[in-house]
Amino acid sequence: MKYILHPAFPEPERIVTNRKTGFKLSSAGWGEFRLRLAITLKNGKVLNRQHDLKLKYPRNPQRDGINPQRGDTTQVLGSAGTKTSAAPQLRVFLSSSVADAAIADAIKETLEQHGAKVVEADAVGPSFRPLVESMIRKADGIIGVLSPASGNSVHEELQLAERNGVPVWRIGVGSEPLVPEPHWRVDGPSDVASAVKRVEEMLASISNPPRQR
Hints:
Elements: E1 2-4, E2 13-15, E3 25-28, E4 31-40, E5 46-55, E6 74-78, E7 81-82, E8 91-95, H1 101-113, E9 117-120, H2 129-137, E10 141-146, H3 152-163, E11 168-173, E12 184-186, H4 192-205
Parallel strand pairs: 8-9, 8-10, 10-11, 11-12
Antiparallel strand pairs: 1-2, 1-4, 3-6, 4-5, 6-7
């Protein structure tokens, strides 16, 4: 895994290969910047991810082993994000098939623009179903993009969410009958604007803070 830190860091690009530590990286700094990750899978495919960091200066630098004159604070970074004191972030699981990628990408972009963290099954691969199930249970909600071309995995992920009390929103693509009936429908893969509007309606309906996980 490659971590791409802010250019102000010494050696801003760092590679971690220790799977036993969860690809953890220990570094130092404070302020706000966008952490970028390049995750290389066993099959050679590279997944690019990013996370906005807000690192605060410690209240007691000497106690934490920090040297203020050196200008650093301690922060531990992990493969799934960071340990920070930021406010809880809405976590949404996005389930879709390759055939509906255009709408799924528009949904993801809209969610992230609203400050939500989007997690998807393709980030871990089909051989890690237990991890996918854990991701769904920890989500504040799940959005499923459904069409006649949707695979069984999309329906299974939505059913798993319902069994665990995770709120579900279904967006249907096209006019063909779907079971169960979607909450909203869009005309097709080219109807990205309509999909975005539906997601914004969904976000507006969430008045409670993220569930405790």
